[in-house]
Design brief:
The protein has 421 residues and is mainly α. 67% of the residues lie in helices and 2% in strands. The protein has one domain.
């Protein structure tokens, strides 16, 4: 990593990928899931979200996954938007710069999404198919897979939505450059005023989330070919992406995310607020279970209204803790941060097959989860390092000429979500 790395957010990226792998590793052991795995050919194809179902359960994983479902995904969209203004600025100004940025996003996000969905998703979900298959052979799986009304993408859904948001940002940058200044001015008004920033996030995300949650429920997903999205959340994620864009356009070093600002100093307060908001949302949501649609309207409205508060508090708590607690460099965190994108692309294959391998093993749910998470993280980390080395070798190879010294080693291959200024 270069010397101009934003250390707290580089370290936060490392923490985020750890949580992502842990989240997917914990899904087989949720106490809220039914005792048997979901049938592969039966609608609504719940195995897409819960590919492996183990007989060992622990309710602590339900709490952990609920927390991350509320906070982690909005945080990832916020971080994805945070450094878009700097990336666009490096391309220049005007429509040509916007098109150059969009082309860059295609190579960094679009193409990896296509390759991961086409090549890795079937390999990963084959483990889920084998849990309930009468014929577990690869040929039978492929026939069942091709018969599905969609092409499940797994966690890669995040990539296509980030690509769409990035395309929208580049179009606005190229055709209506004034909008960046408007967002920057909004972020400037929240500078070192995290409560004002939180209020803006809550208000905008409430308008984006509550109507859709009441219409579609907070849980339902839609699958159109390889494109998956949660019915109630696309606009919510759009809000967080452009909130990150606004802060990045104003400047992290002089906005609400200043390393020495009030947000960093009050990180404990924000962590407590996140826990309280999470508990309130959980209590209100429990009143709408097991059937959201059959619950009283006032209960559904209360649950939907509590979600934006829990979401904003959780995201801001993560940001505050990064600023206060993750300001020191560490070699392992640097490596994990550099390889975070590669780990995200490949980890699901390792998580699902390891979860499948441990289904019949007599261990507690926490023990299984720790083993699956640790091995999957190590395997995907090594895989990412290998892939990056291969790409670096390909980039470096044309610079070699007979009789000349090798070209200088290129800088670390940039990856999506980079947090260098």
């Amino acid at each position: 990593m270069t010397s101009n790395v934003n250390v707290p957010f580089s370290n936060l990226r490392a923490v985020v990928i750890l949580i992502v792998v842990a989240f997917h590793s914990a899904l087989p052991y949720l106490a809220s899931q039914p005792p048997q795995p979901f049938a592969f050919d039966v609608e609504p194809y719940r195995w897409i979200a819960f590919p492996i179902v183990d007989h060992q359960r622990w309710f602590g994983f339900d709490l952990f996954c609920a927390w991350q479902d509320i906070s982690l995904m909005p945080l990832m969209f916020f971080l994805a938007g945070l450094f878009v203004p700097a990336s666009l600025g490096r391309k220049g100004a005007g429509r040509k710069a916007a098109l150059a940025y969009l082309a860059d996003r295609w190579w960094r996000i679009g193409l990896p999404f296509v390759l991961a969905v086409v090549l890795l998703s079937p390999v990963a979900y084959y483990a889920s198919y084998r849990l309930t298959a009468a014929d577990p052979s690869p040929l039978a799986f492929w026939q069942h897979w091709r018969a599905l009304p969609m092409w499940p993408s797994g966690p890669q859904w995040f990539l296509w939505q980030v690509f769409v948001f990035s395309a929208l940002a580049s179009a606005l940058y190229g055709f209506t450059p004034r909008w960046s200044r408007v967002l920057s001015d909004w972020a400037g008004r929240t500078s070192d005023r995290p409560l004002v920033f939180a209020a803006g996030l809550i208000g905008l995300s409430a308008a984006a989330y509550i109507p859709l949650a009441l219409v579609f429920t907070p849980w339902d997903w839609r699958n159109i070919g390889p494109f998956s999205f949660q019915d109630c959340r696309p606009l919510l994620y759009l809000v967080y992406f452009f909130a990150g864009y606004a802060v990045g356009a104003h400047g992290c070093d002089r906005g609400v995310l200043r390393a020495d600002g009030q947000l960093a100093r009050t990180w404990l307060v924000w962590l407590l607020a996140a826990v309280i908001c999470m508990c309130v949302w959980g209590a209100l949501t429990s009143l709408t279970l097991p059937d959201w649609s059959a619950s009283p309207l006032v209960g559904r409205l209360a649950s939907a209204a509590a979600f934006p508060f829990a979401c904003a508090a959780g995201v801001i708590a993560y940001l505050a803790m990064a600023l206060r607690l993750l300001h020191a460099r560490h070699r392992l965190l640097d490596s994990l941060s550099q390889n975070a994108y590669g780990i995200y692309l490949v980890h699901y294959v390792f998580v699902l097959w390891l979860g499948y391998a441990f289904v019949g093993v007599s261990l507690s749910a926490p023990a299984k989860m720790i083993i699956v998470c640790s091995v999957a993280l190590a395997a995907s980390w090594l895989t990412s390092m290998g892939l990056r080395a291969m790409v670096a070798a390909v980039v470096k190879a044309p610079n070699r000429t007979p009789g000349h010294s090798p070209a200088p080693r290129p800088a670390a291959i940039p990856h999506e979500g980079a947090v260098t200024r």
